């Protein structure tokens, strides 16, 4: 019991530190996503969207809301952990944690929760902006929140692994630019995969972002290209795999010890 | 009880560099222990392994009876580390740095605040509690590292060159603080390049060179190995010709300053009597070189780099 309480305090400390970090610089961490997404809504939703008409039976503006919101969650959860953990490595204050009796899983949970918190805060802010442009009635609050949370956790884990391997500040921007952004844009944010030729539909199925966007779209609008169960199973599988790998890296001290 | 028990500790880095070659070392509870060695001797690797920042290759480490492999959390709870290099988040205020460290050790916020205030006051940092780390001077950062290392009240405090680059006033106040801490029961292991610091503070000593332990003894016994000592004398008047004094080797530094090398069989009283007989009056004297420094250099210079490989 005493041990559990100690772990809880450690977790709280890391999480609070992370939340304070992105809150203090909210102009850099929260505001840009809100402004960018607003521009997406204005340009793709209002100006171009009105010419496109409907997609999967809903107005194009409503169709892109889930993808844009999730894109903000993905980007922010990832970049929070990758920049925070890499900075702690670079300035060596990660040693404050490594010399303490905090178990690896508590360290990981603290950083991931911090990243997920920023992802959720930005995601909610983007949804509030979306409500100003649309009249979406949420189809399922449970599914919506669960996908929000699971996506934030998954990409926070991705950010952690990136930070562990990073040897310079360049290394923490390579994956978001060359992997994360293409995956997100090709993950059905702006289109239904049914519009793609059959071959590219098959290729799209290998993109994990597709499952998240569709599960979230189901939660908000009640439509999806992918069965909901399959989408949740895929997200959960990715979370388990990345968490296990992150713990392995911490246990071996790769990138942070010696 | 042993505060530290290390057996056959080895560390080989990637690329094959062997930093530690089978170190055996024990430190008694309550000791103030000096761990010395030239740059690259393996001291920081040794400390890194004790504090879990470096993975050992082989060997056994036990801290207050807790085995590092079997019970790393207990070992970490017993140790407070003051590292050689600054490792802070430069954008956090002083108070938050100490509070966070307490949190990592699972100390509840209320208790953490009490302890943080106590140690910041003791180290004269309380007035700076809201100052961001990047705005602190080097000396203040060094003191903060001690406060941070103490917040979980470790039984073993490891100081890796804690006074490097610190002015003499702050250094003396840190010495005084560390003496008090040791008197209250905290075991302290100190590495330093200021050998007068080790001589002044520590009761026992070990010297590492090329990853091996080359000396382990009490400070008194080690200093007893010194056969000769050299003093610099400031004279009242000028001395143009040096007298012959049996047992003492005199050398002119300038007209009013002499250097005297004396065997341990002789005494300072004997030296003064002999100088008086020759009409030489002494205003003051000082050691030419710190005693420990001289022994240390003798030992290190006796062992070439490839010896024992």
From TrEMBL, chain A:
GO molecular function, one example? ABC-type transporter activity
Do you know which PROSITE patterns this protein is assigned to? ABC_TM2
UniProt cross-references to Pfam families, sorted A to Z: ABC2_membrane (PF01061)
State which residue ranges cross the membrane: 25-45, 57-78, 105-133, 145-166, 172-193, 230-250
Domain ABC transmembrane type-2 span(s) in chain numbering:
24-253
Signal peptide (UniProt feature, chain positions): none
Per UniProt, subcellular location reads as: Cell inner membrane; Membrane
Q: Which GO terms describe its cellular component?
A: ATP-binding cassette (ABC) transporter complex
* Lineage top rank: taxon: Bacteria
Q: Which InterPro entries match?
A: ABC-2_transport_permease (IPR052522), ABC2_TM (IPR013525), ABC2_TM_bact-type (IPR047817), ABC_2_transport (IPR000412)
Q: What is its main location?
A: membrane
UniProt keyword terms in alphabetical order: Cell membrane, Membrane, Transmembrane, Transmembrane helix, Transport
What's its membrane topology?
Answer: Multi-pass membrane protein
Q: Which family does it belong to?
A: Belongs to the ABC-2 integral membrane protein family.
For this entry, the protein name equals Transport permease protein
TrEMBL record, chain B:
Question: Boundaries of each ABC transporter domain copy?
Answer: 4-235
Keywords of this entry: ATP-binding, Nucleotide-binding, Transport
* Gene3D superfamilies for the chain: P-loop containing nucleotide triphosphate hydrolases
The protein's GO terms of the molecular function aspect are:
ATP binding; ATP hydrolysis activity
Pfam families named among the record's database cross-references: ABC_tran (PF00005)
- InterPro entries, A to Z: AAA+_ATPase, ABC_transporter-like_ATP-bd, ABC_transporter_ATP-binding, P-loop_NTPase
Protein name according to UniProt: ABC-2 type transport system ATP-binding protein
Organism for this UniProt entry: Marichromatium gracile (Chromatium gracile)
């Amino acid at each position: 019991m005493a041990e559990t309480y100690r772990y809880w305090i450690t977790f709280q400390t890391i999480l609070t530190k992370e939340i304070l970090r992105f809150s203090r610089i909210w102009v850099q961490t929260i505001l840009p996503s809100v402004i960018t997404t607003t521009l997406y809504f204005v340009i793709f939703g209002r100006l171009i969207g009105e010419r496109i008409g409907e997609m999967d039976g809903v107005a194009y503006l409503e169709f892109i809301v889930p993808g844009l919101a999730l894109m903000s969650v993905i980007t922010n959860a990832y970049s929070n952990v990758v920049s925070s953990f890499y900075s702690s490595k670079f300035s060596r204050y990660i040693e404050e944690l490594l010399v303490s009796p905090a178990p690896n899983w508590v360290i990981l949970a603290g950083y991931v929760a911090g990243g997920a918190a920023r992802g959720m805060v930005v995601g909610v802010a983007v949804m509030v902006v979306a409500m100003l442009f649309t009249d979406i009635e949420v189809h399922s609050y449970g599914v919506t929140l669960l996908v929000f949370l699971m996506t934030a956790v998954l990409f926070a884990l991705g950010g952690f692994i990136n930070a562990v391997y990073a040897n310079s500040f360049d290394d923490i921007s390579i994956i978001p630019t060359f992997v994360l952004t293409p995956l997100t844009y090709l993950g059905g944010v702006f289109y239904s995969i049914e519009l793609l030729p059959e071959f590219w539909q098959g290729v799209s199925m290998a993109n994990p972002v597709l499952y998240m966007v569709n599960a979230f779209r189901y939660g908000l609008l009640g439509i999806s290209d992918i069965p909901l169960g399959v989408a949740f199973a895929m997200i959960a599988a990715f979370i388990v795999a990345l968490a296990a790998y992150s713990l392995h890296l911490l246990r071996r001290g790769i990138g942070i010890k010696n | 009880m042993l505060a530290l028990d290390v057996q056959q500790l080895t560390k080989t880095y990637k690329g094959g560099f062997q930093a530690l070659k089978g170190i055996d070392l024990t430190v008694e509870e309550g000791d103030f222990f000096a761990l010395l060695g030239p740059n690259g001797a393996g001291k920081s690797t040794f400390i890194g392994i004790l504090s879990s920042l470096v993975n050992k290759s082989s060997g056994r480490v036990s801290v207050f009876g807790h085995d590092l492999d079997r019970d790393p959390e207990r070992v970490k709870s017993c140790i407070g580390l003051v590292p050689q290099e600054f490792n802070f988040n430069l954008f956090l205020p002083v108070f938050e740095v100490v509070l966070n460290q307490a949190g990592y050790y699972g100390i509840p916020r209320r208790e953490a605040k009490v302890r943080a205030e106590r140690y910041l006051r003791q180290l004269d940092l309380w007035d700076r509690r809201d100052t961001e780390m990047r705005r602190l001077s080097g000396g203040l950062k060094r003191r903060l590292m001690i406060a941070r290392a103490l917040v979980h009240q470790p039984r073993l405090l490891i100081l890796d060159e804690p006074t490097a680059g610190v002015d003499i006033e702050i250094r003396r106040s840190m010495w005084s603080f560390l003496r008090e801490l040791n008197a209250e029961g905290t075991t302290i292991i100190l590495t330093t390049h200021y050998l007068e610091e080790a001589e002044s503070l520590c009761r026992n000593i070990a010297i590492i060179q090329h990853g091996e332990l080359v000396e382990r003894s009490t400070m008194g016994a080690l200093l007893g190995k010194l056969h000769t000592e050299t003093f610099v004398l400031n004279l009242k008047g000028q001395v143009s010709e040096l007298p012959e004094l049996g047992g003492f080797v005199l050398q002119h530094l300038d007209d009013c300053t002499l250097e005297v090398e004396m065997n341990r069989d002789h005494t300072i009283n004997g030296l003064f009597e002999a100088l008086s007989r020759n009409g030489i009056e002494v205003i003051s004297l000082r050691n030419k070189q710190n005693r420990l420094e001289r022994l240390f250099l003798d030992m290190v210079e006796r062992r070439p780099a490839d010896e024992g490989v």
